[in-house]
From TrEMBL:
Cited Gene3D superfamilies: 3.90.1010.10, BFD-like [2Fe-2S]-binding domain
Domain of life, source organism: Bacteria
Any one GO molecular function term: iron-sulfur cluster binding
UniProt keyword terms in alphabetical order: Iron, Iron-sulfur, Metal-binding
Domain BFD-like [2Fe-2S]-binding: 176-217
Source organism of this protein record: Candidatus Uhrbacteria bacterium CG22_combo_CG10-13_8_21_14_all_47_17
Name listed for the protein in its UniProt record: Iron-sulfur cluster assembly scaffold protein
NIF system FeS cluster assembly NifU N-terminal domain boundaries: 28-157
Length: 227
């Protein structure tokens, strides 16, 4: 399949990303393009960050993977994230989402750890000016990788009681997708396995979980829509 190309014509809004297949396009905001073409805080040399706190999510085998490195300092009794570096194997939306997240975390002297734990994909998308619906799952990767890195900090600093477990039961162990993630996707209109995988990629990294995913899909459809 050919890569998407930028095609600013009178038939498309300025900045539309249009695939070679006629009529198959979606819109990227100027902010998304800024962070894609000029990503912030991307890590070139992993060896220089061996002492940082590491978070990982996903797998290159399923198309999306992300690593996050944090440096955290306690200043006036407040734990602040002073540095955020990252690498991702993914699409333009994944790159832009993680780049924006790194800016949000490190601006204004570094975000307190407690505030960083409250960040959600919607916060990242708002700063980006939105993402195409089919790319929303890309912002979810950044938020999960961040929490994974903060958990690494808690473990290494002996604060085991602060380690946060992903909300709900883990279903896809590669992409760290829970039953709660699946329920939210169903509520947002993902009423088939194909739509679920398009939205959150569940089962693409861990195919063995698909029977469980299909069972949860039926359960949540009946629960919320009587279907």
């Amino acid at each position: 399949m050919s890569d998407p190309i930028i095609k600013p014509t009178h038939e498309a809004r300025k900045g539309d990303v249009v695939t070679p297949a006629k009529g198959k396009g979606w819109f990227y905001t100027d902010m998304v393009k800024e962070h894609f073409f000029s990503p912030k805080n991307f890590l070139e040399d992993e060896a220089s960050y061996k002492q940082a706190y590491l978070g990982m999510v996903g797998s290159p085998a399923c198309g999306d993977a992300m690593k996050v490195w944090l440096k955290i300092e306690t200043i006036d009794g407040v734990e602040r994230i002073k540095d955020f570096k990252w690498k991702t194997f993914g699409c333009a939306s994944a790159i832009a989402s993680t780049s924006m997240l790194s800016v949000m975390i490190t601006e204004e002297g570094g975000m307190p750890v407690e505030d960083a734990l409250k960040l959600r994909p919607q916060d990242i998308m708002e700063r980006l000016g939105g993402l195409p619906a089919r790319k929303v799952h890309c912002s979810v990767l950044g938020d999960k990788a961040l929490r994974s890195a903060i958990n690494d900090y808690f473990r290494k600093s002996g604060q085991h009681d602060r380690v946060e477990v992903e909300h709900g039961r883990l279903v896809d162990k590669v992409l760290k997708i829970t039953d709660h993630d699946i329920e939210e996707a169903v509520l947002e209109g993902a009423d088939t396995l194909e739509k679920l995988q398009e939205k959150i990629k569940v089962g693409t990294g861990d195919p063995s979980c698909i029977p469980d995913v299909e069972q949860l899909l039926r359960f949540y459809k009946e629960k919320h829509f009587g279907a």
